[in-house]
Amino acid sequence: MSRSNLSGLHVLSRRRKRLVLTTQHKEIWHHIHSLLPLRDAARAACLSRAFLHSWRCHPILTLNRCIHGSNASVPRENLSCIIDNILRNHTGIGIKIFRLESIFDACNYLDNWLQIAVTPGIEELTLKLCHGEMQYNVPCKLFSDGVQSSIRYLKLSLCAFHPKAELGPLRNLTSLQLHSVRISGDELECFLSKSPALEQLHVSACHEIMALKIPCVLLQLHCLKVSDCRKLQVIESKARNLSSFILMGAVVKVSLGETLQMKNLCMSHPNLICSARAELPSTMPNLEILSIGSFDQRVNTPMLPTKFLFLKHLSISLKFTSPSYDYFSLVSFLDASPSLKTWLLDVACPTMRHESFFGSSSELRQISEQHHGCLDTMKIKGFHSAKSLIELTCYIIKNAKSLGCLTLDTTFGELKCDNGMIGGRCAEMPKDFLTEAGRGAAAIRSYIEDKVPPEVKLTVVEHCRRCHFDSPCEWI
């Protein structure tokens, strides 16, 4: 080969090397730019032409009222125009995450915005509209073949969504959150049946759903949370690996199928405490976290031989219980839970209808001692002078040998004036509740404090004397 040919190859090789280095540099700068917050990325694009192309392909678009600065006051229509300009200057290529949150007057733009942003390769879509724009119907055609195969996280709020049977499968969707979405139970069931990889499902304030049915194809579903769906009557799950179920604000018929994998359960229902103690140890033997609420509780908790062998965290809320209800019967949960570490008991109620220890002629009841070696933290919220509640507290102090922290809160647990409340005053409380709170504090000083071992940290929470100076204090 001639010397001239060798020289030409050498020059070509150097040019190719420079070209490769330039491409690598662009990729590095593009990656750095993609890591910047949206406003910083926009500023960088304005200052440097090198970042302009990266800006037009920015992978994370979070569009809300903060894009113009957290302290700026921007008219609603101007904010929509700003977002419209951002999206019109974006190529739509490379968007991985698109969040549109609380934008007024968005309905006039939404179809165009979503057409630009929701493209093949997108992984997360969050669409949160405002209350006045709930009529917007998220189009099913948005989920094209490419979107169906890439989207992993979908959150819809304050809109309508009516998926059809023709919608293709969303094979990689792992998380679905619906809040105040107009969707029927049948439509949701249809959508779920096309999402076999779903792991988390949260449904809240979806008032058109009467029956929530979870199909058996959801083998990966492990977390189901349902709250405040007014018309909901039935929840039926055939997901065999469900391990966390949270139901709030609704009294419905629940059928969970196989529950051996259940580790976290949160429910509220009239007279639930008794049935939970009787049934859950056998139907959900692997529970680790149990949160149950009951109102109008009338039946005492039974002492049974069945155990919650793995239960570590217990929360019980009792509202407006019957005057005949015996708080001391809750010892059954402690005796059934050898691994229990924390216990929160909420008995806060504006009026105390139980027998008070003040004026009672009977002594505190005693039952056979059973030492508990794991309970470390106990908190009773709404502590009052009910005799059976004092007996329960004394039992725990005596038998929980590992107890390290005991909190007795005679309030509702609300923020006080020293916690930065607006106005510098505690919230007003009913006079009868303040009276009973004072009696509860007196009961702690008279019957509980001297029984607490020195190694146990006792915290007593009382109402603020400054804000409630006129509250009855004859028991304090």
Automatic annotation (TrEMBL):
It comes from the Eukaryota. Gene3D superfamilies: Ribonuclease Inhibitor. Pfam families: LRR_At1g61320_AtMIF1. Residues 86-464 form the At1g61320/AtMIF1 LRR domain. InterPro entries: At1g61320/At1g61330-like, F-box-like_dom_sf, LRR_At1g61320_AtMIF1, LRR_dom_sf. This is At1g61320/AtMIF1 LRR domain-containing protein.
